[in-house]
Amino acid sequence: MIAAAAFYLHGFSWSEARQIVQRAYNEADDSMKPPYGMILLEGVRETLTLLKQHGLKLAIASTDIHRRTEESFKTLKIASLFDVIVGSDDVAFGKPLPDLILEALRKTKLKRNEAVMVGDSLSDIQMGRNAKVKACIGVLTGFTTREKLEQQADAVVASVAELHAL
Q: pTM of the predicted model, to two decimals?
């Protein structure tokens, strides 16, 4: 937004300024290589594997675009654990609106009351609430504090690696 504002202040229309900045952002993104800064935290692969072995369907609802998320998961060797990947480019509206989760539910053929959303930000929890899923679990691997997550989440765990304990 700051870059777009700078272009706008230098005589470009707001629409032109946004397009210039979006092109630059897209080019910068495309120059990166998978997993695009994503890291796999300790114990997460094992927990995801355990959840799959128990017959759970796993989906990711990412603010990143579909292609990058899929490439990252392949690089991290966890793509096969997910039944569905939904990226920001797969829906009309991102978090905290429910579109990402609703698309994941549609693709997995699950009902809202069969789904649990796990996320590390307040916008994740709000998205889950807006989608009216069965439960929203906060994880402390992002920047949101336990206190803030506890205000909105049904449960809070230190990491996705602890989900099997719930």
A: 0.80
